[in-house]
Write a structure and sequence with these properties.
single chain, about 375 residues, about 55% helix, about 15% strand, rod-shaped
Amino acid sequence: MRQSRFLWAIVSVSLVAISLFPVYTVFLLAPRFEELLVENTKDEAIRLATWVSTFVVEEGKELRRDTLPTHLLDRLGSLEGDRHLIKMRIFSPSGEIIYSTEPTEVGRFNEGAYFKEMAASGTGRTEIISSQSRSLENEVVPADVVETYVPITRGARLLGIFELYHDVSKGRKDLNRLIYRSYGTLFMMAIGLLILVLVSSFQARRSMQETAQAEEQLRLLSLTDDLTGLYNRRGFFALAEQQTRVANRDKKPMMVISADLDDLKEINDTLGHKEGDAAIAETAHILRESFRNADLAARIGGDEFALLLTGGEAEFDGGKLDGRLQEIVEKHNQKDDRRYKISVSAGFANFDAAGTHTLEERLHRADTMMYEQKRQKKGR
């Protein structure tokens, strides 16, 4: 039972793990990869801003349109051929656009609160903007971009702000493709693992069931008689002990019966042992037919049988029980194809589990009565 619960726990954990893969991919893995993409683009923008600052910080003056060096403008113009670069701007501390890859924008002012906050604090800002969404400057972007603002400073003094729109559509698409391809691979591996766990669990469960069945069969084989299907001597005394305890607890009377197949030696000598075995098996069938299924019946010797009757409200009547037994024996003897007559002698002893007599003593008493009946038959 414990092993079965353990196997189901493994299956449950596997199912939970597989169900968590999409959650992990969507809410943890994908955002983290996107953060790395943004950070990488931000680092590139910072490098460009640092490169720009090397041309303008020497004088330590705020950037204006008329202060941008010609060689810097030439260099910035050469960057416009970068296919990933959508737009590049340089702002003065007051928010005026003093350089842009779109010359018509030069001279405009950025009045956004976010820009004023950056100018006051001297900090930058990075946002990823999806295609056809609006940027911080309320512009619709044509692709997935990373919008980065990097302050250009000298010491604690703000000289200007560098802005870069970097196209990350391809990188983002490739990244998502990689994420979901990895997810698909992991998911298939998880499904394969689950199938393996299920198959292993099924086989292990079947193995445990087969083992339990084999153990039960071995137990029954050790307690039952092959010829008759009744319990053997060992099974009789083992189960009788249990039933005796129950009867004692419930204060129920019991009866022990000793029964014997008469003239088995004569059957064996005249018709053979195979017919003798058939007679023993038929006697077992007669005993089962004569008493209740709840009564404990056993073959405890070659032609010797014992029964334990429990659950009665009053003492069992041995005379009535013997009469019923002999009637069923006679019914079997009336069959047309009989080659011999079945004769069964029986002795009956009432048994009180709370009394002083043991089961063995009561069985001996029933034996004595059975042999007395057998002698009476021979005398007749």
